[in-house]
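Hello,

Our lab assistant flagged a job as stuck in the queue for most of the afternoon. It eventually completed. Since we weren't sure the result was trustworthy after the delay, we are filing this so someone can double-check. Below is the sequence as submitted and the structure that was eventually returned. Let us know if re-running is recommended.
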Amino acid sequence: MSFVAFALDHRPTPTSIYRQYIQADPSHKPLRFTPGKTQMHPLPWPRDQWTVHKSAVKDARGMVAAQHVLAAEAGAKLLRCGGNAVDAAVAAALTLAVVEPWMCGLGGSGFMVVWLAREQRAVALDFQGVLPRALTVADYPVDPDLPPTLMGFPAVKDWRNTRGASAATLPGAVAGLSHAAQTYGKRGFGAALDPAITLAETGIPASWYTTLLIATEAEVISIDPASSSIYMPRGRPLQIGERLFIPRLAKTLSRLRDHGAADFYHGQIGESLVADLRAGGNRITMQDLAEYQVIDRPAMQARHRGADLYTAGPQSGGQRLCDMLAHVSGAMPTPPERPTPETWLVYANALETAWRAHRIKNGTLAEVGAHTSSLSAADTEGNMVALTYTILDHFGCGVTLPGTGILMNNGVSYFDPRPGLNTTMQGGKRINSSNMCPTVGVRDGQAVFAIGASGGDLIMPAVAQIAALMLDFDMTLEEALHSPRLDASHRGSVRADPRLGQAVLDQLGAHHRLEIASNDVGPKLYAFPSGVAWENGMLSGLSDPFQPDSNARGQG
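-- returned structure --
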């Protein structure tokens, strides 16, 4: 039985603080713990010295939960103005582009799952990024002296696949959010933009969490003059209470309201975006933008404990979620009254099995956390939405386009510069492997919960466990989000929150190489989940208790 301490890997990557020690390095030997005894790693990560609890928000009519409370409020405002859950989700997502731009925004991509109550069906929208058609592998020569990217692929010369304009894929967020609002909403794309425009015009005060994230990613931000001027004025991170204001973003959002998403892919916004990107060495053209398509299809479906779970499909983390739950059902046909050490072993084994199949398919050996934003919404008509979108790493490629105020993704790092693999980069190729896993649970024709998470390869384990805890043990949303979890992704070890208890740790350690790490504000090792749920005739909404700026808001 061996327990491995969490440690930081200080390799010079843009998000090294989130990288975990997993891999065999002759200079690093895993620390072995004796069960029941306390031993410290020579360089321990000091865990947060507080007890965290965040109560679920309750409302009888509508609910939005998001990674920033101002985004949740923006969505709730659309519900109060006659919008449905789709309108609310789109408004919240667009507001996140203003208040949490380092996670997601107009320069990003993602997935949305919508349960349409009246039609009794679930749809999944894929608005993932696409490589420019003129891109060639020769643009991204592998540099063997650099460590792998966050997606587990080889790094390339000058970090061209992770930093700078050359790392950006064609963004699908504007097309996806517009399609959702126009096709399934009631108020339209323009109305969903209004709350974001208002905040973009004034800016918002920076929280301490904002200052922390900027300081953490100062190296990436500093490569770009526009980003530096926004997030690191006077050469240091934006201070608590100072105004976070992104020049030209309000004008871009206003133009989208007035001219629609077509302006992003065919008009003035697109022309400005292409010009700024090409100046930085990116090959995206107006033709690339004009050819972009949102994929709208029936959601992938799994069944667990009498409920149907709808998720985003084979290009997302959805297949792994379905595989994990199928394994749980087979290994634990009848759940005990409450989770036991054997329960958590079943969950760990199920995650390992699902991830092993994924890694074999994609040819990847290791992935680590990326940075995304997730939200959920519900309305009084019975509709529910789970939405996750991203610019991939914190601050994406680091580049804020001066003409539009858009912070761009670094989606090129989703692709492998080596030939012959499922994820090999190729001009015009769509991102075909993602961890995002927005999920809606439906029982007897009624949506009962919508959940999702951010956090790269941490996403699917978090979403799957929260769904399992709610369905296996009838936990409330609040109970499930506060429950300690584990993380497993077939990387050579299983991570467990010590709050699971010594008996669980002993059981896991008897079968897996085990890391013990707390669920703290940072480094974030168990994802950022958010969700909404119908419980006893009321809607509950909650976002990650350990994320200080997140919360839910009801329609009221």
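-- support follow-up --
The delay was a queue issue, not a problem with the job. The result is valid. Residues 1-43, 365-369 have pLDDT under 50 and may be disordered. Residues 98 and 173 are 14 Å apart (CA to CA).
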